[in-house]
Specification:
This protein is an alpha+beta fold and 309 residues long. The protein contains seven helices and 14 strands. The strands form three sheets. Strands 4, 5, 6, 7, 8, 11, 12, 13 and 14 form a nine-stranded mixed beta sheet that branches. A three-stranded antiparallel beta sheet has the order 1-3-2. A two-stranded antiparallel sheet has the order 9-10. One of its GO terms (molecular function) is RNA binding.
Amino acid sequence: MGEQRSLPVPDGLEGERLDAALARLFGFSRTRAAELIAAGDVLLDGSAPAKSDRVHAGAWLDVVIPAPPAAPVPVAEPVPGMRVLHEDDDIVVIDKPIGVAAHPTVGWTGPTVLGGLLGAGHRVATSGAAERQGIVHRLDANTTGAMVVAKSETAYSRLKRAFKERTVEKRYHALVQGHPDPLRGTVDAPIDRHPAGDGRFAVVAGGKPSITHYDTIEAFRAASLLDIRLETGRTHQIRVHMSAIRHPCVGDLAYGADPRLAARLGLTRQWLHAFSLGFEHPATGEWVSFTSDHPADLARALEIVRAES
């Protein structure tokens, strides 16, 4: 059961759309407000309204705010294809395969890095929320490559700080459409949730500062292989920034890639791979770095592009 709230519309919201008024009153997104209205959880002066209805000061609002879903817990089961690149008492560095999320989230029913490690008998740090134990950074479910997980509490706090203070070197390889001009450069553009509210992100004024450095490794007829260094680590950052400069990752249909090119290369996801990860070891303080080879689907697509050029 949710929480029942009843209150008059404040004077300051006179004439606002109902979805916008609810968002301001209760601090959730307009998309969430529209969902509650559509579900019949909002009454305006006793009747079921539309999200675009204008509200008047003093009108009576009855809102049922559903209880937040319980945080999902990791399912401990081995994940096929998830290799361990390095392990010691403090950290485990894995090579994350396609279709694996970092940790459980509401709505994700697929395998997770955390569940895979627990299922293979690895110990992970217990700091942080139960569903994210030991997770100090994430890769998108369909982005492959090197990822570190903390095993000790010390490693968890030190790595969290290293990622926050940007002392970790995160290098990616991305196959993007066309040829970026200049061949090497920096994209410095703020990122936040896409206004469409569909799970995508976008360059948005007032978003979180986001900086991506890129360098062209190899140029082909239809695409370019880039070496990318992330200074910040926003969700979908490389995908959003490459799309913003009109060179989306090949195969990244959500961010404007050409579906015909993706089909020709046999890609069912964005061509993006976390190629290497370097950081100060949380226990010894020495600089360590780990690399991950291109997985089969990306390697095959790259071969085709190279052969066609």
